[in-house]
């Protein structure tokens, strides 16, 4: 499989360089011109990805070579860019920042993998010629990287812009493709909070943001030159991934989808659908109970910001408790784990939640866990074979109110924090909750197991008298996945 889609990486010298505002402005201008877009966020990030999706009016996918193999990342990129006029990838942190001193898994390494040119955004506050030195340093450290231009951000005035532009062009031989002035007018374009920006679902529509982004792009960016650079790319050849054959029976997987729970990788949801699941959105705030579903997926989000509303929706809390007791398969990540615990304390106020797990959680002022994780499944559970290694990520300000002495989890944490004491993965019947977020492209057996468990629950509840006579059907379902080229794990069973 070969993609020739024009592509461009918007990178920065550091976090808060202005990558997101630059990317959103550029995307909004491209959409105004009628271009068909594909958008991506480098690394494990839900909020920036949501804003990129908002600007491009299409799904944003995450590209991460730590959680997912490079070959699969490249294949995912090629598949998602089919038919697009331009693909934009927003980097994370600094251009060369990775897992180690060599910059492993950095934005630069992703750009090389995708053969994509890079435009570097630089925060120019209180600096002039030194910007050229920093850009030159990137060129020296990454000589194989196609660094194609620079955008200046937070420029103080015309003289400031002119001096930096001349220094970059003379020292680095690169064009300056834009100069965005200091835009602060007593407020920011998009307000932030403890995990970054607020999400688009909470921001509202009548803010004039889109028009402000259009103005930034048209007034301060060389849009035509950036499009030209994006088109000056090599073809990217990748190995096409095998198609998944869905199971014959149709299962319904509910997932919390509202202003609280928004952290889902599109690939995770698509993987469930490709295996034969119908996705059923559920509001943790407005709905009074779960609909008729065969399993429940609760992703991450901000339960701490609306804990009072969640705790007041007593009928939904009771419905989830009843479903868990009945053996409904439930998979929960981070915010979902919080929802399933006994309580959450924020600002000295306790909020009672679902109570499936006897854990009381406390909101802290600083991150409890932040970054990539590596965990090993070491106890029986409904979704993963013992010995499975999961590479994921965590970012949470909550933790147990009392440090657990013995956490009854199914996962050993090699890298990261989890629940504490190097444990994660709480288990109750067919319910598993953990702080670690996973990406299905790095662990396809997760989707196999989730759909399998949903199908198992459907058969058991619709034919309780069968008492496991459906074991042959279960075996056939797993064989479908095997024929599709997807590895499957040993699953826990109530039978």
Compute the average pLDDT: 89
Strand order of the largest sheet: 14-12-15-17-26-25-24-21-22
CATH architect. name of the largest domain: 3-Layer(aba) Sandwich
Give the terminus-to-terminus CA distance.
Answer: 44 Å
The CATH superfamily label of the largest domain reads P-loop containing nucleotide triphosphate hydrolases
Q: Can you tell me the residue ranges where pLDDT is under 50 for at least 5 consecutive residues?
A: 465-473, 475-495
Tally the helices: what do you get? 15
CATH class of the largest domain: Alpha Beta
Helix percentage range: 25-40%
Structural class: alpha/beta
Beta-strand level of the residues, as a percent range? 25-35%
Shape: globular
Number of strands: 26
Q: State the CATH topology of the largest domain.
A: Rossmann fold
Radius of gyration from CA coordinates? 24 Å
Most strands sheet: 9 strands, mixed
The figure for the number of domains is: 2
What would you note in describing this structure?
With 495 residues, this protein is α/β, with parallel strands linked by helices. It has two domains: 2-237, Rossmann fold (3-Layer(aba) Sandwich); 251-483, Class I glutamine amidotransferase (GATase) domain (Rossmann fold). Helices cover 32% and strands 26% of the residues. The protein has 15 helices and 26 strands. A nine-stranded mixed sheet has the order 14-12-15-17-26-25-24-21-22. The protein is globular.
